Predict the 3D structure of the following.
Amino acid sequence: MIECKGIKKLYQQLKVLKGIDLSVNTGEFVSIIGASGAGKSTLLHIIGSLDHADEGSVQIDGTTLNSLNQKDLAQFRNKHIGFIFQFHHLLPEFSALENVCLPGFIAKRPYQEVTEEASKLLNKLAMSDRLHHKPGQLSGGEQQRVALARALINHPKILLADEPTGNLDQQNAKQVLSMILDLKSENNMTVILVTHDSQIAMKADRTLTMQDGSIFY
Ligand SMILES: Nc1ncnc2c1ncn2[C@@H]1O[C@H](COP(=O)(O)OP(=O)(O)O)[C@@H](O)[C@H]1O
Ligand SMILES: [Mg+2]
């Protein structure tokens, strides 16, 4: 499902990624651990086409990302890839429900279908009584569940999670993780999760370590 070959990334003189090769199978759950500054976020952003590599290629489900123009890339991302970050990046002026719906509307799916599905997802994440709250009125764990629902609204094949539990207490972290695991097995989603927490990393099918721009198997 994901095939990275020889990915290199430079920031000025700094070699942030030094030639990363990574293959992830459909339905596989891979965790990535490593010290701060190792290049984990940079790699995840490149896999998710939020950033581009200086060298190397990323193939997602047979599509080579380098071959797409900006517009097609944005469409591809919207359709196939879900993201969750450490900070939820929810839009503060919109309700939980609206935040979850947005990627569906951007994909030009029917209003009714998207709204119903967003409610269902939020229900599943035990947020049914928070649909019309704005992010500022929600706790950290609740905000992250909204971000998870938003990541999943377009049924992505791939979920990329960058320290999604980094800001949560242990209880909430566990809950968000178990929700990711449930949804993953229901939908045979491919998941890459970056974390500092070895307990969480251990839940994956496979754990990789990044150090200083390289990946260790
Ligand atoms: N936009 C940028 N410009 C310059 N340096 C950057 C930029 N983004 C990240 N870096 C540097 O690249 C390195 C890897 O960053 P990052 O991928 O965020 O690491 P991690 O997620 O493992 O903590 C760090 O040294 C960081 O300072
Ligand atoms: Mg990071």
Observations:
- The two ends are 18 Å apart (CA to CA).
- The CA atoms of residues 11 and 17 lie 10 Å apart.
- The mean pLDDT is 94.
